[in-house]
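User: Hi! I'm working on a homework problem where we have to compare a predicted structure to a textbook description. Could you give me the structure for the chain below?
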Amino acid sequence: MRRLNAILILLTLSVLCEATSLQFVVNNSDSEGLYLLRELIGTQYYTIDSAIVKDQKVVFKDRFYPAGFYELYQDSVSRLEFIINDQEEVQAEIKDRVLQRNVVFSDKENQLLWNYKYFSKTLREEKQVFQRAYKITGKQGFKQKLDSLHEIEQNYNSEFLAASEGTLVWDLVTSSDQSFLGSKDESYTREHFFDKVNFSNPALVRSGLFPRMILEYLKNHTDHTEEGFKITVDKVMTLASANAEVRQFCLMNLLEVFDKVGPAVMFQYTTEVYLLENSCSEEYGSLSGKINGYAEVMPGHLVPNVSLSNSAGEQSYLLDNLGNKKKTIVFFWSSHCSFCEETFPQLHTLLKKNKKKYQLITHSLDKNLEEWQKALDDKNLKGKHYSDLQSWKSPVVQKLKVHKTPSFYVLDAEGFILSRPKDVDELELFVEQN
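Assistant: Happy to help. Predicted structure tokens:
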């Protein structure tokens, strides 16, 4: 890393939504190297420009920079976070080769930001020392010191919020504040967790706020059931609808979380309810292919013509199995699924009552031929029965985006998807009305 003794950074920002000149003046004749300008989106920094020192200047081309958090980056050790807003010129003098080690800003917003950073870092380190000492010794003197530091923190935060009101850093700190929850019970916390989060401010997309708060809520304040996750997704998306950019960002964040850690059924739910019915998916990068896969199995589309295997290993295509002038119920199940077991009596009655209008095709997620055949004999379901004995790895299951059993499709005589009922009750309602 090149030695950097002093840098004067001048960021000339337009108050209007016009192109902005961004210039870094390096007051050191032997300072060289490449500098990156990076924009913070969620939890990731993205490089939006680069420049080298020339005539003691690092100049980025004119452009409009949305309000938010950015970073001047030299390497993984030397990097400086700062805020761009539409109200102030940003100027900073950096006096160390490690950009963030000794920095003095002249604009109010970044002064507040870095004073808060320095204070928080110093206080956190001091509290850790006394927490360890109290844990080891149990001496009340250390406990009293911790109480004193807590009071200092509260007083500083009150003064900070009063001084910073109306700034982006104020909005970030206020939105992150969870102290008002105190020792409230879990039901209160779930109801009010997001009360201070400003979902109407798109500048907070260029911060780590929304991913951090959403992930904490998913981990600690959500029932880890399908219904519990749906409640959380609905809550977040309702709040995020306060601003179009925030909504889009929170939607993408939820999709990325469910894509990486599951459950897959929630990726499906979020995609179908909040994306496919409201927008196209071309802008979703690496997730576009997966999202388009769900689009293919939405009602109104021709069902993918998957290859089915019967108990003798014979192959046939789904569309070739559709009934003449009849609608078809496609039922995904397995012999070891207790929820499927509860479904069979109602499904029997429904099919018997509507046998002139509907036929049944089943696909089992079993792995064992004997267990599948025995269950079929026991249930005595009238219809066409298939399984490739590959369980969740089945190409049929993956292509038709089945993430739970029981699952249902309803097809018309030509194979167009009429409905994807969430359970047998919803299936019965659809059949009775159609």
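For your comparison, note the following. Residues 92 and 105 are 4 Å apart (CA to CA). The longest strand covers residues 44-52. Good luck with the assignment!
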